[in-house]
Amino acid sequence: YPASITKIMTALLAIENLSPTDLITFSKEAVFSIERGSSHIGMTEGEQITVDQALHAVLLMSANEVANGLAEAVSGSIENFAVKMTDRAKELGAQDTHFVNPHGLHDDNHYTTAYDMAMITSYIYDNPYFLEIMSHKTYQISGTNKTTEIRYLSQQHRLPNEQRDSRLYREDVIGGKTGYTDKARHTLVTIAKH
User: What is the torsion angle, in degrees rounded to the nearest 10, for the CA atoms of residue 55, residue 183, residue 108 and residue 176?
Assistant: First the structure.
């Protein structure tokens, strides 16, 4: 079970299908269908942010409701997006992967392998836009149509973020994603450049 490393595929499909300046409007399902207490940035129904802001929220803060919003923006529904995720994974050579959601919260039918995640990640890490997002240790989402509050985001992966944990920081790490659920336990994808 991949947990939030799922969001690498979510980001790939968003980058391939949306423009960074496109606006996402959050539906009730996107906001309220995630598990209570799971990772989020507090989006509300009807709130709007850009795709660029959404990708930062997904890749840095692992925001589950934002992953749902990206899924709906790309495919019209979370279910349709999951089908697209699985199909795209197979195109990239990930033959033992099946996605049922864009965030990675547990489902027995949502699974992958380390090899498949390496195949997916090896494809996205050549994307300059993905690497640019990954280079941000912190990021701010300014006020939206629903709030004047600034949302402060911070890279949760400790290896590329010296501000999060200076003891674990590695200069050669250029990206990746962490994940955790009770069933999956800790999951990790890390990209280092040598």
Answer: 30
Structure tokens at 156: 């949760």
59 closest CA partner among 99, 114, 20: 20
> Amino acid identity of 31?
V
pLDDT tens for 47-73 read 999 999 999 999 999 999 999 999 999
pLDDT per residue as tens digits for the range 155-193: 988 888 888 888 888 899 999 999 999 999 999 999 999
Q: Alpha-carbon distance 168 to 31, whole Å?
A: 33
- Strands 185-192 and 48-50 come out as unpaired
With 0.85 as the threshold, say if the pTM is over it.
Answer: yes
Tell me the catalytic residues. Answer: 4, 7, 62
Q: Catalogue the E-assigned strands of the chain.
A: 23-25, 48-50, 138-141, 151-154, 173-181, 185-192
